[in-house]
Structure formats: C-alpha cells, structure tokens
Amino acid sequence: MEVIIRPSHDAVAALAADIVAAEVRENPALGLGLATGSTMELVYDELAARHARDALSFAQARTFNLDEYVGLAGDDASSYRYYMEQRLFSRIDVDAANTHLMNGAAEDLDAECVAYDQLIVESGGIDLQLLGIGRVGHIGFNEPLSALRSRTRVKALSPQTIEQNAALFGGDASRVPRHGLTMGVGTILDCRRCVLLATGESKAAIVAKAVEGPVTSMISASALQLHPRCVVIVDEAAATELSQREYYRWIFENEPEWDAFR
Ligand code: GLP
C-alpha cells in the first residue's frame, strides 16, 4: 500500500483522473471498477472534462460499479445507476452496454449477485478499481464484520451508513433502503489495482484506522493492506490522524512509479 497526500479535494480528484487516464490509454478495453458518493463527484467531473478536452476515450472500456440499493430500479433518482448516468456515463463515450451495476430491483437478489461476480470474471476481471470509504470504514457496502473473503451479496446497512447516505434521499434517513447489494471484500481484492480516495476532516479517523491499524473485518477498508497494488489518496484534512505522514510523502517523492504523476 502507498499513501499519497494532496493539498485539496480537487488535487485528489485530479490525481485519480490522471491514473484512470493513463490506464485507459494503455489498455482501451480497461475493466474499470467505479464507486459513488460525494468524494467521486469531482473525479467524474475531471474525467468528463478530459474526454471533452483531450479526447480521452472510454469507447472500449467496461465498467463495474461496487454497489446498489436494494429495492431501487435504475431510473430511480436515488439509485446508483442514476447517479452514474448523470455524473459520468452521459458525459463520456462509454458504450451503455458495457456499463454494469447490479439491479437493485431484481426479483432474485442472490442470483443477481452470483451472476455479477461471474460477469466480472468472464469479461476479464477488473483492472483498476476506484473506491471511497464510508465513515464506518466500509468499501462498497461492506459494513462492519463483512467477511474479508466475502463475494458479491446482499448486506444490511449499518445505522451510521443510513445516516451518512440520507442526503441522497432528501435528508430523510427513513427513506434510505435498509439493504444494499455490494461486491464482496474478496471480490474487490481480486482487482489488479485499486485506488481508495478520502477527503475531508470527517474521514481522518477512519483513514488512520484503515491504513495504520490492524486488518479487521470491523473496518473493511483495512483489508486493502492485503492488496498487492493499492494506493490511498487523501487530502490534507483526511490525513491529519495518520501518524507517518512524513514517511508517506518521502515515498511518493522517491518512488519511480510516480515520476509522471508528481
Ligand atoms: C456510499 C457508497 C460507498 C462510498 C461511500 C462514501 O456509502 N456505498 O461505496 O465509499 O458512500 O461516500 P462519500 O464519498 O459521500 O463520503
């Protein structure tokens, strides 16, 4: 794992977009794992801008989202499918047939989850997975105690996550679905490269636990310590509780992999 500290949310988003752009230029048929949430909004703005400005193309890319709410169809304005259409898919040249999210309104949710994991494998796997982190430390909707080897499945949402995500439901927590469909921690760990983004003071404590604490199913993001190629990109506010900030800065300055990104 590496930790990169950038001065602002804008700079975090720009670096994440630089990584996506480099990967999709090298491999136009990239398997790109996507996340939702406010942290990602600026990343998608950056990608849309680069598509318009620099002809960055996603025409052959395949996308797979991490999660979806149970009970919401893709045309529901609170669904993650809807979020993705608005924030990214309609603004770039990705082929709609290559954009994948679980269907939260599927009749057989368990079959939907099994089929999703199969689809990822059969289409060549995820090359680059973008991740956010919830205040409980979740990646996707892998709430505390999610098995570190879990696969895509239905998960009950924690009270903290319901509270945190109420904004998308007009601020009314009682309207937030009680369950989500989510890639499992094990599914996420199968990706070839992952990038976790966190910004703002409210994420500082959980970022420190995920990066510097023990690997534990109580904080599913801590499982990323096991991933062979994972970078955590945070702004200064989200970095405040990391005890080894100077070490992370040193590594970023000296690691040849990042020469083109500094
Ligand atoms: C939701 C998503 C997560 C995401 C989290 C972060 O809970 N299911 O995948 O990581 O939001 O949200 P934000 O970026 O708004 O803090």
Features:
single chain; 262 residues; alpha/beta; Rossmann fold; seven-stranded parallel beta sheet; three-stranded antiparallel beta sheet; 8 helices; 10 strands; globular; binds 2-amino-2-deoxy-6-O-phosphono-alpha-D-glucopyranose
Architecture per CATH nomenclature, i.e. the level-2 architecture of the domain at 8-189? 3-Layer(aba) Sandwich
Main sheet properties = 7 strands, parallel
Number of strands: 10
Strand content: 15-25%
Total DSSP helices: 8
Query: Which structural class do the helices and strands define?
Result: alpha/beta
Q: What average pLDDT do the residues reach?
A: 98
CATH fold assignment of the domain at 8-189 = Rossmann fold
Radius of gyration: 17 Å
Distance between the termini: 18 Å
Oligomer: single chain
User: Helical residue percent?
Assistant: 25-40%
In summary, what is this structure?
33% of the residues lie in helices and 16% in strands. The chain has 262 residues and is an alpha/beta fold.
Explain what this protein looks like in three dimensions.
By secondary structure, this protein is an alpha/beta fold. It is globular and about 50 Å long. It is 33% helix and 16% strand. Helix 2 (38-54) links the parallel strand 2 and strand 3. It is built from 8 helices and 10 strands. The chain has a domain at 8-189: Rossmann fold (3-Layer(aba) Sandwich), CATH 3.40.50.1360. Bound molecules: 2-amino-2-deoxy-6-O-phosphono-alpha-D-glucopyranose. 2-amino-2-deoxy-6-O-phosphono-alpha-D-glucopyranose (GLP) binds next to helix 2.
